[in-house]
Specification:
The complex is a heterotetramer.
Chain A: H1 3-13, E1 20-21, H2 26-29, H3 33-48, H4 57-84, H5 87-99, H6 104-112, H7 128-138, E2 151-161, E3 164-172, H8 174-197, H9 204-223, H10 227-245, H11 252-282, H12 289-298, H13 303-320, H14 329-332, H15 338-347, H16 352-359, H17 361-367, H18 377-392, H19 399-419, H20 423-451, H21 456-459, H22 463-466, H23 468-482, H24 488-499, H25 516-541, H26 571-586, H27 607-612, H28 630-662, H29 678-688, H30 693-738, H31 745-756, H32 774-795
Parallel strand pairs in A: 1-2
Antiparallel strand pairs in A: 2-3
Chain B: H1 2-10, H2 14-39, H3 43-63, H4 67-91, H5 107-128, H6 138-144, H7 154-160, H8 165-176, H9 178-199
Helix pairs in contact in B: 2-3, 3-4, 8-9
Chain C: H1 3-23, H2 27-51, H3 56-86
Classes of the chains: A mainly alpha, B mainly alpha, C mainly alpha, D mainly alpha.
């Protein structure tokens, strides 16, 4: 960010690459402030929190509020920069820079007062024209508005090795500012919500400290410009999630869940480390994300290298973003406090993987050759995840677990979207999902807060009577999740389905390829979502209130004397809910598909794409955008609604009736068909056992390593390596003592003992000769004399 | 050696024969007694066996024609030292009856050392003085002829001619070996006082 | 009479005495063994004196006897002392020289 | 250069020894006086000596020897008293200067039995002399002497103040290291006799710098390999590398807390320092041939140590095994023979010193409170002694290589360097090592978090629940730990503090053919061992 680093960068990579600038609005150049503020608040809370009137909560809230303000400001700053950044200015600026490069002082002035913002060589991309064309391809008639997006960068040296300097920095572009807003907004709501939810907790202060630390780490991850910095933030958020999942570590299950989360992520991190290392060397020893992307797109990095690297990175995505086979930690992570689940395990941290793919999209785009193909690992994993996780969500009785699996499934949507090249759609879904999923979690928390349990079947039911606000917001968020028009989820999910480009048969949608399989998976997932969410709604808010007063259901949340009838939560809980449901209702409107509305509102369409996709930036591939088709929208909605309808029929009609028959004293729901039909039961158990993945990990891999393997290794250590050493010692001692054996029976025994007891009585043996028994000395004396005499007589 | 002995006997000198038989009797007695001293479990018996050994030693002195030494042996040892030992036994209440465990655990070693020592000595002696015969009864020799031992100076010779070794010993002690004698007497005195000092009750 | 008779006898006594010194527990008995050793020496002295026809052997024998007397006196005193301290004169319990 | 403060290093080296002598002179019984004096000496050395080094050291010339002092010592074998430091030695010296006073402070109220502060503190100071001397020595014989000087005090510290098996552990430690040293001195001597410059006339010197200039030129291949092997044994046992590590767990488990801390924090570094200061610079060609095997042992050590940790039931022993694993990372970095790897190694040494030091401190304090380190009997530390629990958690996080804390910078660059080792080393082999090492990080997280969960989380077992003498960290413990904790964070956030210092020295210490770009490789007319032939493919 300083002039020197700027010059160094120029020296290192030759002329600055297009697609970014070191100038730009002040707030964007100094984005490091955003993670810095909560980091400071973390320290303050950690060291002084307990002494503060509100136990540190106020510091956390204040800092996050400040961050939110900054985030909004930087969004608007970005909008302005995005639209009115002119390459020409940059040419002059860079010209000036190069002219005055010798006289650094002048430049100092320039950079400091920020007038030399646009520093960029006028190396116009040859492919720029095509880029424009491609960008226009999606939205007809807006080509005039398309204006290349230019990221704002700032950087400083972090460390050096082999004479090379490696940077830490900020890379601010559309996806960054969008993410900044999401993170800080959700984080603020969670902070507020928590003041009520975990009030009076034993470690209230630590809770807020870690919330702040998490916010800081997440923001750092969002703005990081170098892969190593990215890894750092990536690990930090992991640790925060570890600490917050294990917040109530008195019970072993919680700490187990925390460990599981951390270790699973570590497994994925192998992929992260290796992948980043490969890219580091492939791009000529640099951690610079922009440079890596650019080189990947220019074909300066071999395709196989990119393929390997992106596959390694996928491992990291699968663990962090809970993709199938490595997703198992996410449901367990619900052991943490509910606001944490909302913030970390629904809205922000778990999408870090998605964010990384979006960041390194050049690598993935080339490496997995997303363009013009019909299937690739990324899309496949995403699709499998969204379907399988959706199935798993059916058999959960814990409302948070259902939501967790639903999160996994939605993450599957995003990954799949990135896999099929629908970059904007993925981020758009990330955007909307953050709001309504957070809303769902907080709503679930609000319910649990009043019934002190998460078990829908045992302790809930009929809650709509007791907590109307929670009920309404929950339903709105559910509709958004299921993707009912016009809620937020509808737009984003529909855009993903469009992006698959699989809808070819009915008036094709020009995507990046024809991922028909993904399209089917997506639609299927929609119906699954509808079904299990309906189940949740029924079990939670309808039917009879099944709560009997037992509060031992991991309801650590309970702090106050619980009264027996549940009641609506206080404003600090409901207001965030209302806000979130508002976003769940409206957030979709920020990216209305083209041609959906007309007239003077037309400029309102595709705002998200316009502002947040780095169109025609050299570090970003020229992805095509599919044209939305009403037929697809209608069809997918129909399927989704069908799922809702079936579930509605089963629960609201059949089960409800049976429940009525069973009468008032009902604490357990009647059994479903899964207990009767054998084949269904088999499937049911398979789901209940979570595809036996946990058994595999816990009982075989983990237990195996910790148990037999480790013990075997240690056995080798003690009985082979160590034993050899001891044997060497013994034999040496033996040879040493062998001399005595011709003298004296005692010493022979001694030697035997010595050799036998090297470990216990090393060296102590010789002392046995020195017993202090006069007569023994006499014996030795005479013996010696005899020997001497003998020698004198016989030998001499 | 045995052969030499028989040779002497066959020469028909009765005195020698009688002397030899008597000597052997005493020697064997001594050895047996000595062995009993170091093996018996009863300390008082041990003391009495010791008396036998000491008496035997006195007899040996007589065989060697050293009557004065023999007399002193009997007086000092049997008269004084053994009594002293018996006193010691009483004072330390070492039980008069049989003691269990009069020996420590290194009998084997002791026997080994003793036998080896004896073997070495025996070899050396037999090797060195195979058949050396002691001179005849020295007193007679001294009377009839000049002493074979020219190492003796005149006055000793004169004394010797008196026909008794006691006088010679007395002269030797009080003329030539007066200093050691004084030293010994001082030593005795010191020992006396020392013994009293050590042994006296506080 | 042969010189060796006496010397061998003395040797036997000496060795027996050595054995006694080594094996006996009772301090008084050790003293006795020492006495035997001294006597063996005396026999040697006198024997060689006779062999050389000189009384000096006997003279030294007498000195030895005197010293022996002293030694016994001191020795017994020490034994007594040990007995007072340890209520026993078992030499195998006397290990104050232990390193 | 004018006024290069040639006295400072000698003062730093021998001041502790003088202090030790004075302490011995102080009559017994006046305990506080002993402690105070030891603290005074070590603290003054840290503040003034360390401060002097930091201010006077010219960081722009970090690749050159500074504060050098060179005088005749043992003229008969032309062994000279040469001391001097460059960017590689400086961090380790500062680490030593820091750790010793902290140990003194810590032991202020935790003196191990038998209670004898006088001897204990004297030993610590003698240790300091040996350690600093090893880092500043620029003559092989001098190096060897200090290398051995360290041995005895540690031996006594373990043998006198150790646990129940102390005799065995101390003897094992002593003999084992001595065995290595024997081979090491052999290697040094053969260097002395075999080294001859290209003109063919013998060098006959122990001067490390001179030998580094020489770089094993026209030394026969077999001789080079053997000499390197000797050094490898000497240093590798000290590190300790995989097959020679068995002395470490016993020594650590038996040693008193302070002994473990010094052992882990500094003593182990003597071995690695020997590699990067002596073995690799002087014999680069032999190093290239040895490197794959060193790397192999290193990665085996990483995995093996981690698995060993998982099998432990004793906290201190677990930490000891984790040292094996972490030093494996350091050795992997060294084995790559790249600036990246060796910088990582230097960083790893310092980081491991700080982190494992803290872990042993905490373990010692736990032992002092619970009188056991059996993991299954512990638990709920966070409830009974919250601050200590958090410190333990922090240390474990740092130890498992969390980015933003010091441990990461020893670990990640080492793994990274393994992807592209120095010229002449097989990339395929080292990339395999890289992946294995990456797996090792997972295991590290596994055992450390497992340890944390068993000791810090959960409810305290009822046998300790009501134990009155289980209290939170005392002020002495805070004072002793705070600097290390702060350093762990600072180095983690600002790694350049260390990299910038060590980088030039490391780059200079390596043979140019090792680190040259393949393009420039031809120009350097390197020996074949550096893989000039394979440069194309």
């Amino acid at each position: 960010m300083s002039l020197s680093s700027l010059l160094l960068f120029a020296a290192e990579t030759g002329p600055a690459l297009p697609g970014y600038t070191f100038g730009g609005p002040w707030i964007l150049r100094n984005a490091w402030l955003l993670p810095f503020i909560p980091a400071m608040s973390f320290l303050v809370i950690l060291f002084f929190g307990k002494r503060l009137p509100y136990k540190g909560a106020e510091i956390g809230i204040a800092s996050v509020a400040a961050v939110l303000a900054l985030a909004i400001i930087s969004n608007f700053a970005w909008f302005d920069h995005r639209d009115h950044y002119e390459a020409a200015e940059a040419e002059d600026a860079i010209g000036a820079l190069l002219n005055e490069a010798e006289s650094g002082a002048a430049l100092q002035v320039l950079v400091v007062d920020g007038t030399a913002e646009e520093i960029r060589l006028a190396t116009e991309e040859p492919a720029a024209g095509e880029l424009f064309a491609a960008a226009e391809g999606g939205d007809d008639g807006h080509s005039s508005e398309i204006h290349p997006s230019t990221a704002v960068r700032a950087e400083a040296t972090w460390f050096q090795s082999g004479g090379k300097e490696f940077k830490v920095g900020t890379l601010i572009d559309g996806q960054a500012v969008m993410m900044l807003f999401v993170v800080s907004f959700i984080s603020l709501l969670v902070h507020v919500y928590s003041t009520d939810y975990v009030a009076g907790d034993r470690r209230y202060t630590h809770y807020y400290a870690f919330l702040s630390l998490f916010t800081a780490s997440m923001l750092l991850l969002v703005i990081s410009a170098s892969t190593i910095q990215f890894i750092t933030a990536w690990e930090l958020v992991g640790v925060c999630s570890f600490a917050l999942i294990g917040h109530w570590w008195e019970e072993k299950p919680n700490s187990d869940a925390a460990l599981k989360a951390f270790l699973t992520n570590r497994v994925g991190d192998i992929g992260l480390l290796v992948g980043m290392i490969i890219l580091f060397f492939a791009a000529g020893q640099t951690f610079d994300i922009v440079k890596i992307n650019t080189m990947a797109l220019n074909g300066e990095i071999g395709h196989n290298t990119l393929l390997v690297a992106s596959l390694c990175l996928m491992g990291a995505v699968m663990s962090k973003s809970g993709q199938f086979v490595l997703h198992t930690w996410l449901p367990d992570a619900m052991a943490g406090p509910t606001p944490v689940s909302a913030l970390i395990h629904a809205a922000t941290m778990v999408v870090a993987g998605v964010y990384m793919i979006a960041r390194l999209y050049g690598v993935f785009y080339e490496g997995l050759s997303i363009k013009d193909s019909s299937v690739n690992p990324l899309a496949l994993v995403g699709m499998i995840t969204l379907v399988f996780a959706g199935l798993l969500a059916f058999v959960q009785d814990d409302i948070k677990k259902v939501l967790a699996y639903s999160t996994v499934s939605q993450l599957g949507y995003m990954v799949m979207a990135l896999g099929v090249g629908a970059w904007t759609a993925a981020l758009f879904h990330l955007f909307t999902h953050a709001f309504f999923k957070a809303g769902l979690f907080l709503g679930a928390g609000s319910v649990a807060h009043s019934v002190h349990s998460f078990d829908m079947k045992k302790d809930m039911g009929g809650m709509r009577k007791f907590m109307p606000t929670t009920y309404k917001t929950f339903v709105i968020c559910t509709l958004a999740l299921v993707g009912i028009f016009p809620f937020a989820g509808f737009w984003s999910k529909d855009e993903i389905l469009v992006g698959t480009g699989g809808w070819g048969l009915f008036g094709g949608t020009g995507g990046n390829g024809s991922y028909t399989l993904m399209l089917i998976g997506g639609i299927l997932g929609a119906s699954l979502t509808g079904a299990y969410m309906t189940r949740v709604i029924y079990l939670t808010f309808f039917g009879e209130f099944r709560h009997v007063a037992h509060d031992d259901h991991g309801a650590h949340d309970s702090h106050d004397a619980h009264d027996h009838l549940p009641h609506e939560s206080g404003p600090r809980i409901t207001i965030p809910l209302i806000l979130l449901s508002g976003f769940a209702l409206l957030a979709g409107l920020v990216n209305l598909p083209p041609g959906f509305i007309t007239g003077n509102l037309e400029s309102w369409q595709e705002r998200f794409l316009h502002f947040y996709e780095p169109v025609s930036a050299a570090y970003f591939p020229s992805v095509a955008h599919g044209t939305p088709s009403y037929s697809l929208a209608v069809f997918s909605s129909a399927i989704g609604i069908a799922g809702v309808a079936m579930a509605y029929f089963y629960y609201f009609v059949l089960v409800d009736r049976k429940a009525k028959q069973l009468g008032e004293s009902l604490t357990e729901l009647p059994n479903g068909p899964t207990t009767k039909v054998g084949f269904l039961r088999a499937g049911h158990t398979l789901l209940v056992e979570k595809y036996y993945l946990d058994h595999l990990y816990t009982d075989f891999i983990a237990a195996g390593t910790k148990g037999p393997i480790a013990r075997a290794v240690y056995w080798v250590n003690q009985n082979v390596l160590d034993a050899t050493i001891d044997a060497v010692g013994r034999t040496s001692v033996k040879t040493g003592t062998a001399v005595y054996t011709h003298f004296d029976q005692k010493v022979v025994d001694g030697a035997v003992n010595v050799t036998g007891l090297v470990s216990s009585e090393t060296g102590g043996e010789l002392r046995k000769l020195q017993t202090g028994k006069i007569q023994q000395y006499a014996a030795y004396l005479f013996a010696g004399a005899t020997v001497l005499a003998g020698v004198l007589i016989f030998v001499i | 050696m045995i052969a030499a002995l028989f040779a002497q006997i066959s020469t028909g000198d009765d005195l020698y024969v009688a002397q030899n038989i008597f000597w052997w009797f005493i020697a064997i007695l001594m050895v047996i007694a000595a062995i009993k001293v170091v093996t018996t479990d009863n300390i008082v018996h041990a003391a009495l066996y010791l008396v036998i050994v000491l008496a035997g030693v006195a007899a040996q002195f007589i065989f060697l024609g050293a009557e004065f030494a023999a007399a002193t042996q009997v007086l000092v040892y049997i008269g004084a030292i053994v009594v002293l030992l018996l006193f010691g036994i009483m004072l330390t209440r070492g039980s008069l009856g049989d003691e269990e465990l009069t020996d420590n655990e290194q009998r084997g070693m002791g026997a080994l050392v003793g036998l080896m020592l004896f073997a070495v000595m025996a070899f050396a002696l037999v090797d060195g003085f195979e058949d050396v015969v002691l001179p005849e009864d020295t007193r007679n020799l001294v009377e009839v002829q000049a002493p074979i031992d020219t190492t003796l100076d005149d006055d000793t010779f004169i004394n010797v001619t008196r026909g008794s070794d006691t006088a010679a010993i007395g002269d030797a002690i009080f003329e030539k070996y007066i200093v050691p004698f004084e030293a010994v007497s001082v030593l005795l005195l010191a020992a006396l006082i020392g013994a009293i000092v050590i042994a006296r009750k506080e | 009479m042969l010189l060796n008779q006496f010397l061998l006898l003395a040797g036997a006594l000496f060795c027996i005495g050595v054995y006694g010194v080594i094996v006996r527990r009772n301090g008084v008995m050790v003293l006795m063994s020492i006495e035997m050793i001294l006597n063996a020496v005396n026999i040697n002295l006198v024997a060689f004196g006779a062999f050389n026809g000189t009384p000096i052997g006997s003279v030294f024998a007498l000195f030895v006897i005197a010293v022996a007397a002293a030694e016994v006196g001191i020795g017994l005193a020490i034994v007594l002392l040990i007995y007072r301290n340890k209520k026993s004169i078992d030499f195998s319990e006397v290990d104050t020289l232990k390193g | 250069m004018e006024n290069n403060n040639e006295w400072i290093l000698s003062v730093l080296t021998f001041a502790p020894l003088v202090g030790a002598l004075i302490i011995m002179a102080i009559p017994k019984g006046d305990e506080v006086f002993h402690k105070g004096f030891a603290l005074l000496v070590s603290g003054a050395l840290l503040i003034f000596g360390g401060g002097f080094l930091l201010t006077e050291f010219d960081f722009d010339r970090a690749d050159e020897m500074q504060f050098t002092y060179d005088t005749s010592w043992i003229s008969v074998i032309n062994s000279r008293y040469i001391v001097g430091i460059d960017g590689m030695a400086l961090p380790l010296i500062l680490l030593t200067l820091l750790v010793v006073p902290l140990c003194v402070i810590y032991s202020w109220d935790h003196f191990p039995e038998p209670h004898n502060p006088k001897a204990f503190l004297a030993l610590i100071l003698i240790l300091e002399t040996g350690m600093i001397g090893t880092f500043v020595a620029e003559d092989l014989i001098l190096f060897f002497v200090f290398f051995e000087v360290v041995l005895l005090p540690m031996f006594f510290m373990i043998a006198v103040w150790g646990g129940e098996d102390r005799r065995y552990a101390s003897l094992k430690f002593f003999l084992y290291t001595l065995f290595g040293s024997a081979l090491m001195i052999l290697a040094f001597l053969s260097l002395f006799f075999l080294a001859e410059d290209t003109a063919g006339n013998a060098l006959r010197t122990f001067d490390i710098q001179a030998l580094t200039e020489w770089r094993g030129a026209n030394l026969s291949r077999s001789a080079g390999l053997l000499i390197f092997g000797g050094m490898f044994m000497g240093f590798g046992i000290k590190v300790p590398m995989f097959p020679f590590h068995t002395w470490l767990p016993d020594a650590h488990t038996q040693a008193p807390t302070v002994g473990s801390v010094i052992l882990a924090a500094v003593l182990l570094k003597l071995g690695t320092y020997g590699f990067i200061r002596i073995a690799i610079p002087i014999l680069p060609e032999a190093a290239v041939e040895w490197a794959p095997w060193i790397g192999l042992l290193a990665v085996i050590g990483i995995i093996y140590g981690a698995l060993g940790c998982l099998a432990q039931t004793d906290m201190k022993r677990l930490i000891a095994f984790s040292s094996v694993s972490h030093m494996g990372f350091v050795m992997l970095g060294i084995a790559t023979l790249t600036t990246f790897g060796i910088n990582a190694a230097v960083f790893g040494m310092v980081a491991h010193g700080l982190i494992t030091g803290i872990l042993f401190f905490v373990a010692g304090s736990i032992k002092e409170r619970y009188h056991t380190l059996e993991i299954k009997r512990l638990g709920g530390l966070l409830l009974q002694a919250p601050r200590m629990g958090w410190i333990l958690g922090f240390a474990t996080m740092a130890s498992l290589g969390l980015p933003g804390l010091a441990g990461f910078w020893g670990e990640f660059p080492a793994i990274l360097a393994a992807y592209q080792p120095a010229n002449g080393l097989s990339e395929a082999v080292f990339r395999t090592y890289m992946v294995v090492a990456a797996v090792g990080t997972v295991l590290a997280a596994g055992y450390l978090l497992w340890l944390l969960q068993r000791t810090a989380f959960g409810e305290p077992s009822e046998e300790f629940a009501k134990d009155p003498n289980i209290h939170d960290a005392t002020k002495f413990e805070y004072v002793a730990w705070a600097p290390m904790l702060v350093l762990i964070v600072v180095l983690g956030v600002l790694p350049n503090l260390l990299f910038k210092t060590s980088d030039p020295a490391v780059e200079k210490s390596l043979h140019p053919c090792l680190i040259a770009e393949e393009a420039d490789l031809a120009a350097l007319d390197c020996p074949a061992v550096f893989g000039v032939e394979v440069a194309g493919g």
